[in-house]
Amino acid sequence: MTQALDTRWFDPARWNVLIGILFFAAFLAVNIIRARSGSNLYVRPIAGLEALDEAIGRATEMGRSVLYVPGLSDMTEVGTFAAITILYRLAQRVAEMGCDLDVPCYDPVVMTVLDGAVREAYSKAGRPDAFRPGSVHYVSAQQFAYVAAVNGYMLRERPAANIYMGSFYAESLLLAETGALTGAIQIAGTDKVTQLPFFVCACDYTLLGEELFAASAYLGKEPIQLATIIAQDWAKALAAAAVVLALALATAGHTGLTTWLKIG
Amino acid sequence: MRRGPLLVTFLTGIAVAALFFIPNYKAQAVNSKLLEWTLVVYAFALILGSVSLWNSHARKVKNRSPGWGFSLVTLVSLLVITTLGIWKGVEEKSPVGQIYNTVNSPLASTMFALLAFVIASAAFRAFRARSLEATLLLATAVVMMIGRVSIGEVISHHLPGITEWLLDVPNLAAKRAIAIGVGLGAVSTALKIILGIEQSYLGKS
């Protein structure tokens, strides 16, 4: 028996997602207008990001490198984009302070993008000559071969700061625990909820969930970028209100909103 | 100069986002084709990756950097596996397949098995009662560990129920709260990239 081909041009089960995205886009537009008009956009301090300067400064004083691990996902993961944007800001600080940076990569496409971003960051910092070719390099597309190589690097070279940003899986604790053994200052951030406890245990600072996505804007401090964080917070407030309302209605026996909020 | 890549990003981003809402088989065929293109890009990037791997390790061997012997093993392995793969193929019975099953897989399993030891050492560090939060973590962990094994039910028949409640109520609530934040953060990042607000992946702030 052959399955009938779907000829619909819109999936009605995804109205909720579309409305959510439209709300988000509206929040973004409002906050970009606020930013352009010079409004003061406050973003709460994030300890893990405040510590990045301290970590780079420590590496510079000790004459050791900064190790940046951009996660084990490819360019289809938003977490990888977050890792790229954070590295761009971080590389500028590293170039300004004049310490060495090492970025081992799991995915060759990500490596190519990161290499370009780091080169540009060094140029923007006014130190294109300080960029070391090969500082962004490919290791392996096998999870545990990658872990073995990065752990070996940590134990041999003893980087002063280990920064893990992006999407991580079972390797998160293997990396972070080895880094902790070397005494390096460790800052992590991931969008994988199941790996967060491991980073919290083994790292000095951990960016929880959405903080990873806010990091680039936070480090850049450009008003338009900060506007995106405020829009994110407004959307979170709306999501929380929708959850509370759905809960109250469900308790009263009306489950319509609960059903509608489920993503089809 | 960067308008071209930004335009490609915008159009592709909008198209892929729209395809999420369009179940039409023709649209989904386009989606599948786009995903196939990523494989082509990956294949070319893999060549760049291999060159990067070679250069990185060749430099270490040449400079006699710490651990250069490992780099030599990597270079020899890269050459041997590539040559054997081209010459004899990569099927399960081929030399590459056999090396993969008898060398690579056990090594990967060994690395994975180390996870048990690092969990123990990380738990030892995390479970020290230095503050109120750490003490709460320690107490919860003790209840969880005892409640999930057979002896837990012998100590108290309430313990398995308590562990289930801890997992299903406070733990799940916190996990979902973080997951909602992650979801919104992902949408925010995707919109920033599609709209060209975030351009650092192109090497521009």
Detail the topology: elements first, then pairings.
The complex is a heterodimer of chains A (264) and B (205).
Chain A: H1 15-36, H2 47-62, E1 66-69, H3 78-97, E2 101-105, H4 108-124, E3 136-138, H5 143-157, E4 161-166, H6 171-181, E5 185-190, H7 196-202, E6 205-208, H8 210-220, H9 223-251, H10 256-261
Parallel strand pairs in A: 1-2, 1-4, 2-3, 4-5, 5-6
Helix pairs in contact in A: 1-9, 2-3, 3-4, 3-8, 5-6, 8-9
Chain B: H1 3-21, H2 25-63, H3 68-88, H4 95-126, H5 132-147, H6 150-155, H7 159-194
Describe the overall structure.
The complex is a heterodimer of chains A (264) and B (205). By secondary structure, chain A is an alpha/beta fold. Chain A contains ten helices and six strands. Chain A has helices at residues 15-36, 47-62, 78-97, 108-124, 143-157, 171-181, 196-202, 210-220, 223-251, 256-261; strands at residues 66-69, 101-105, 136-138, 161-166, 185-190, 205-208. In chain A, helix 3 packs parallel to helix 4 and helix 8 (210-220) packs antiparallel against helix 9. Chain A starts with 14 loop residues before the first helix and ends with a helix. The model of chain A has no long low-confidence stretch (mean pLDDT 93). Helix content of chain B is 82%, strand content 0%. Classes of the chains: A alpha/beta (264), B mainly alpha (205). The interface between A and B is large, with 87 and 63 residues.
